[in-house]
């Protein structure tokens, strides 16, 4: 079955069907159009895209995605089906309406996450496992605007460390050193610049 024979057969079939476009002319289809139609129909019927990619002989799944026409109503229908399946698997308690008390508690949690040197990344409903020793806590997200306050805190800790060494407070010295190391790490995070990969425009 040669490509020219296939093209001629498609043209003859369209002519016999009487299908016309908005200008009154016969529709024009190529064999490749039917490949796209197959891909769209297969996906709409629920065939996984990685299986379709194998059937179509694509090395890269992104090529298959280009073949599939995704319509808004299809997106909405599949998303709703996904939500229905997800909700059916989750406990019914997860979908109860929250009370006024629960809503207030939720908002209060985020107010309490605001701390001197930044904000706390602790998730809602979880306790503070470090007993509010924020300077030592890896969940502290340092605020760069508080850099001077942190530097002052490190200076004060250094003075306390010197006093503890002079007075022989060895039990307290260990805790101070932990706090100093944690504070220096937070200071390093404040000063650290993260590249987002943005292009440099001269």
Describe the structure.
The protein is mainly α and 202 residues long. 58% of the residues lie in helices and 4% in strands. It is built from 8 helices and 3 strands, in the order ααααααβββαα. The protein has a 3-stranded antiparallel beta sheet with strand order 1-2-3. A hairpin with a 2-residue loop joins strand 1 (114-115) and strand 2 (118-120). Helix 3 crosses helix 4 (61-67) and helix 7 packs antiparallel against helix 8 (170-191). The longest helix has 22 residues, at 170-191.
Describe the structure concisely for a colleague.
With 202 residues, the chain is mainly alpha-helical.
Key words describing this protein structure:
202 residues, elongated, mainly alpha
Distance between the termini: 58 Å
Structural class: mainly alpha
The percent range for helix content is 55-70%
- The string of secondary-structure elements, in order, is HHHHHHEEEHH
Compute the CA-based radius of gyration: 32 Å
Low-confidence segments, given as residue ranges, are none
Q: What spatial form do the alpha-carbon principal axes imply? A: elongated
How many helical stretches? 8
Main sheet characteristics = 3 strands, antiparallel
Query: Main sheet: which strands, in order across?
Result: 1-2-3
> How would you state the average pLDDT, rounded?
83
| Count of distinct strands | 3
Beta fraction: under 5%
